[in-house]
Design goal:
13 helices, 7-stranded mixed beta sheet, Aspartate Aminotransferase, domain 2, binds pyridoxal-5'-phosphate, Aspartate Aminotransferase, domain 1, 436 residues
């Protein structure tokens, strides 16, 4: 059945639309943190449809809100007033941390970043953008142009003039193995040098992920982006925080990733978890920035009655259940178990991240040489143990763990045990003399 679907998929879908696993599966239903695959196996899901099933599968409060709205009005377009959209914007504006923020809804993170870049470059009358090495901001012409990840960059054509700053990996590259203070000092020194040598002066904006998602949950020290913004602000350069993966409490210690850095963003973009799987995303901006476009615009699908009603129910759910606190405490438990279970591993180069956003970097034994093949094997071994995990990192060598934020302690312990067993199994075949 699944083999037949795979053949049909390959026949009509682009070759570059990558699938996980040697034998890809379809996820046909879900409940809580578990999904049923088309192979008849129930998996514990530690990736949540790429950090998108935030509250969990089949959450009655969210499902019922979607059903109720679907029976009344699915779509009308932004040419008409949409009360769930306005209510959602009011809620997000208040949560954003930006005074008087306005919100524009889109259907994907890519489109949200595109809108943010349109606003920033238009307002600043400049196509110069700062982005971060090892970043990912989407798959369109504009968002790829600010994506510093070779694996996802199919073209060098660009609407922008982009300079990439430091701020990604702590274990390789020019800022590898530095203390927090030294990392910060060197990053700032690099920024000052770039401002003096590589720009025409009026850079429009920096776009940055507080924790790099596709980049393998790499992150600079807390406070780093605040220090960077202090320099940018002196030049009038806007700060765009891409919160597509880090928003809504995912990092545990804060509601938005930017809050760990003391940043005051001019623009925030969001997507993924807000709709718990519905196509809901958007851009939040200071009112004078949002209103600066000099022409009319519409969004056919953005903020549709259906997506907005689901988004409202999901935000109410995640706030009332305090899923941020759960991400903090259960994320810590998961991390502690993983660290303990892999402390003697030679193929685990680093375990990092925040809250329920944890990366396990897999490398050639006793090195920091990325090993996508080890990551593949571990991921297959985890699947064989009924655990789904994501992949990321510059070479696809990082396992990304980002389960629904409603993960229970028991599920965290179960997942940690399964993953440690998968790692030990692969390690025993890769490292001679390994105890397994
Ligand atoms: C940080 C970040 N920004 C933007 C995007 C693009 O979002 P979408 O896939 O919804 O277009 C992603 C997707 O993974 C992302 O991780």
């Amino acid at each position: 059945m699944s083999k037949d679907l795979l053949a049909r998929h390959k026949a009509v879908m682009p070759s570059w639309l990558s699938l996980l696993y040697e034998e890809p599966i379809e996820l046909v239903s879900g409940s809580g943190r578990r999904v049923l695959g088309s192979d008849g196996v129930t998996y514990l899901d530690f990736f949540g449809g790429i950090l998108t099933t935030l509250s969990g599968y089949g959450v009655p409060e969210v499902v019922e809100a979607i059903q109720a709205q679907a029976s009344k009005m699915i779509h009308s377009s932004t040419l008409y007033l949409i009360s769930p959209m306005v209510e959602l914007a009011e809620k997000i504006s208040k949560l954003s941390g930006i005074d008087g923020a306005k919100v524009f809804f889109t259907t994907s993170g890519t489109e949200a970043n595109d809108a943010a870049l349109l606003l920033a470059t238009g307002l600043r009358r400049s196509n110069q953008i700062f982005a971060i090495r090892n970043s990912y901001h989407g798959r369109s012409f504009s968002s790829l142009a600010v994506t510093g990840n070779r694996s996802y960059s199919p073209t060098s054509f660009s609407p922008f003039n982009v300079t990439y700053l430091q701020g990604g990996s702590r274990i390789r590259g020019p800022l590898a193995n530095l203390s927090d203070a030294e990392y910060l000092r060197r990053g700032l020194e690099d920024l000052e040098d770039i401002l003096q040598t590589c720009t025409a002066g009026n850079v429009a904006a920096l776009i940055a992920e507080p924790v790099q998602g596709v980049g393998g949950f790499s992150l600079p020290p807390d406070g780093y982006f605040g220090a960077i913004q202090e320099v940018l602000a002196k030049h009038g350069i806007l700060y765009i925080s891409d919160e597509v993966q880090t928003g809504w409490g995912r990092t545990g210690d804060h509601f938005w990733g930017y809050q760990a850095h003391g940043v005051s963003p001019d623009i925030i973009t969001f997507a993924k978890g807000v709709g718990n799987g519905l196509a809901l995303a958007g851009v939040i901006a200071k009112p004078e920035i949002m209103d600066s476009l000099g022409a009319s615009s519409i969004s056919t699908f953005g903020g549709s009655p259906l997506a907005s009603a689901g988004g409202l129910a999901n935000i109410d759910y995640l706030l009332s259940k305090d899923l941020q606190s759960n991400a903090l405490s259960v994320g810590k438990l998961l991390r502690d178990r993983l660290v303990a279970g892999t402390q003697h591993s030679k193929i685990v180069a680093e375990i990092r991240g925040k809250g329920l956003m944890l990366g396990v970097e897999l490398c050639e034994p006793s090195s920091t040489v990325p090993s996508p093949s080890i990551a593949s094997e571990v991921s297959e071994q985890a699947k064989a143990r009924k655990l789904l995990v994501g992949r990321g990192g510059i070479a696809g060598n990082v396992l990304r763990l980002a389960p629904p934020m409603s993960l229970t302690e028991d599920e965290a312990l179960e997942g940690a045990e399964l993953l440690c067993a998968a790692i030990a199994n692969v390690e025993s075949t890769r490292v001679s003399g390994s105890e397994g």
